[in-house]
Automatic annotation (TrEMBL):
It comes from Dethiosulfatarculus sandiegensis. InterPro entries: Homeodomain-like_sf, HTH_AraC, HTH_AraC-typ_CS, PchR_regulatory_protein, Tscrpt_reg_AraC-type_HTH. This is HTH araC/xylS-type domain-containing protein. Keywords: DNA-binding, Transcription, Transcription regulation. One of its GO terms (molecular function) is DNA-binding transcription factor activity. It holds the Pfam family HTH_18. Coiled coil: none annotated. Residues 249-347 form the HTH araC/xylS-type domain.
């Protein structure tokens, strides 16, 4: 299960909850409190889908097995109240996680520490604990990608590597019962590009597995490069003043408030009291890319989601997301995802 456990902070209470909204186990997958399966039919035997839907919102989990012990998870959620997901039999040999939007807080067993991941975060972690809990918060839609490696795949990929590895990978290879740790960093533009290609992949069968494996390995390489030389159990420092963080987050809110017709960059910099270079620098620290790159990625991410709606046309999506023409949108989409938007079965 894709528990997101990267940024450590003090917990607000002890003990492990016995109740929740969604439950996960290896044997049953995702179920409701009443043990009703949330599984959905999938035409591809290598893909598992689960979906929770109620008055409280929707949570969807999508798992693709690339090889035995090598999986890619995509989680999407939009809820109107805090929701709790409990897991058992959930030891994680080695995992690579990315948060594109939203925020979750997770905890393993009955420890007094909580771990948080939010938009723009990515991290590597492992845990031998077999129970976990994640909280999903209302407000912004949640979207996360999670690459899970079992011990056989960890050894296959890393055991013969003569290059220096991040200490967290070394400890994952040598871990002992009852242990776990993490490293956290910021998502880079190169990571975002690979993540979007995973999320928007419309291939099936062997072609899908090969494509996703190539992107998953690319993401792992980017993370290993980014964490080279970072002390075990620590995050790469963000070096951003709390006031600059507040102003940058306000700039982000202004940008996404009307993504189709966003304010000019000059208006944003004036509103938050930061120069253009400084805002871009802070934006890259918090969200992994510049203001313009974030706007482009977010527009295309939302456009891709709209293309899944029944009856929508490419022309409608293009103008809804603020593109000057369908052809402009099509070029941007292909450059970002490597395929034409018509692959999503939308009509011209």
């Amino acid at each position: 299960m894709p528990l997101t456990v990267f940024h450590e902070k003090d917990n607000i209470g002890a003990g492990f909850p016995d109740d929740g909204d969604i439950f996960y186990s290896l044997a049953q997958g995702f179920t409701t409190k009443g043990q009703v399966s949330l599984a959905e039919a999938s035409p591809d035997h290598s893909v598992n889908r689960w979906k929770y839907s109620s008055d409280s919102g929707e949570v969807a989990f999508n798992r693709t097995e690339l090889r035995p012990g090598f999986e890619v998870w995509v989680t999407n959620a939009l809820v109107n109240r805090e929701m709790v997901c409990l897991a058992k039999d959930n030891a994680i040999d080695l995992a690579f996680g990315f948060c594109l939007s939203g925020n979750t807080v997770s905890r393993f067993n009955s420890t007094n520490k909580e771990l948080e991941i939010h938009q723009g975060c990515q991290g590597i972690f492992y845990s031998t604990h077999n129970r976990g809990v994640s909280r999903i918060f209302p407000g912004e839609p949640l979207q996360q990608v999670f690459i899970s490696l079992k011990s056989n795949q960890v050894h296959r990929i890393f055991s013969d590597d003569r290059q220096p590895l991040p200490l967290i990978v070394k400890h994952a290879l040598e871990r002992s019962p009852g242990t776990g740790n993490f490293q956290l960093g910021c998502t880079t533009p190169a990571m975002l590009n690979a993540l979007q290609q995973i999320i928007n992949c419309r291939l099936s069968g062997l072609a899908r597995k090969l494509f996703l494996e190539s992107r998953a390995l690319e993401l792992i390489v980017h993370q290993l490069e980014g964490f080279a030389g970072v002390e075990f159990g620590h995050t790469r420092p963000l070096d951003i003043h709390p006031e600059d963080r507040r102003r940058t987050e306000y700039a982000h809110d202004l940008l996404v408030r009307n993504i189709a017709k966003p304010p000019h960059l000059e208006d944003i910099t004036k509103a938050v009291g930061m120069s253009h270079p400084k805002l871009n620098r802070c934006f890259k620290q918090l969200f992994g890319c510049t203001v313009f790159e974030y706007l482009r990625n977010e527009r295309l991410r939302r456009a891709s989601a709209l293309l899944e709606e029944p009856g929508v046309t490419i022309t409608e999506v293009a103008y809804t997301m603020g593109y000057s023409s369908p052809s402009h949108f099509t070029r941007a989409y292909k450059k970002q995802f490597g395929s034409l938007p018509s692959i999503n079965s939308a009509r011209i």
